[in-house]
Design brief:
2% strand; mainly alpha; 9 helices; Four Helix Bundle (Hemerythrin (Met), subunit A)
């Protein structure tokens, strides 16, 4: 056996990449901590931790691509972490925060979000490599979780009584689960080139956006993700009209 053949026959290392999986583990811990905080009645803290998970979840994939450390293990681990951080954690927080008072209806509403998150992640994993990279099919689970976390954060910050809006909260919680498994198209932002040049006015807009967000993160983030959820049906209608026009022409 030649030296080149020996190298080919050499088994692959079974180790895992440390850096991106550290971010995934941190996101997983934030989701778990959100659950325990909700159990202790610290709902504002729980909501903030879900947003921390969202940031860390965005970083792990980007770090893996920048350092060329993508792996099948990392992808599967990320999905499992997402299930906890954006499925189980928001569902648990919403149930303990408000939906528990509605009895079985509240339990079902929380489960709809949980099941929607699981189905969304399963569908996403099976469509890797074949879906249009510009759009997500269905509301991404981090965005769905952010809607619920933002609702809790704003309500706790301004001392709105969750018990007064239990049915409305049930509706929103259920809708996030249904939107995740819908066929609505959501812009993925994957086409944004972070390495390219942009006009100076764009930088000014980004700075203003950061300043506004930091001045009142609860309200701004809540409104942003609610708006993103509404963008799905709008984008879908626009895409369908374009397809019809192209067929006619």
């Amino acid at each position: 056996m030649t030296e080149s053949e020996q190298k080919k026959a050499k088994p692959r290392s079974r180790g895992i990449y440390l850096l991106p999986n550290l971010f995934t583990t941190a996101a997983l811990f934030s989701g778990f901590y959100a659950i325990t905080s909700a159990i202790d009645g610290q709902f504002e803290t729980a909501a903030m931790l879900i947003f921390v998970s969202l940031v860390l979840d965005g970083l792990d994939g980007r770090v893996a691509r920048l350092t060329n450390t993508q792996s099948d293990f990392g992808a599967e681990y990320d999905s499992m972490a997402d299930m906890i951080s954006f499925g189980a954690a928001p569902a648990t927080v919403m149930y303990l925060w408000s939906l528990e008072s509605l009895g079985q209806a509240g339990l079902v509403g929380a489960f709809v979000h949980l099941a929607g998150g699981a189905l969304r992640l399963a569908r996403f994993n099976t469509q890797l490599g074949i879906e249009d990279k510009r759009y997500f099919q269905g509301l991404p689970s981090p965005a769905a979780a952010a809607i619920l976390a933002g609702l809790v954060w704003v309500s706790e910050k301004y001392a709105y009584g969750a018990e007064d809006f239990s049915w409305a909260i049930l509706t929103v919680t259920s809708l996030t689960g249904l939107l995740m498994v819908s066929n609505f198209r959501y812009y993925s932002f994957k086409e944004i080139n972070l390495h390219g040049k942009v006009p100076f006015v764009v930088m000014i807009g980004i700075m203003l956006g950061i300043a506004v967000t930091l001045s009142n993160p609860a309200t701004v983030l809540c409104l942003f993700f609610f708006g993103y959820a509404l963008s799905g049906p709008i984008v879908t209608v626009i895409l369908l009209r374009k397809k019809r026009r192209s067929r006619i022409s």
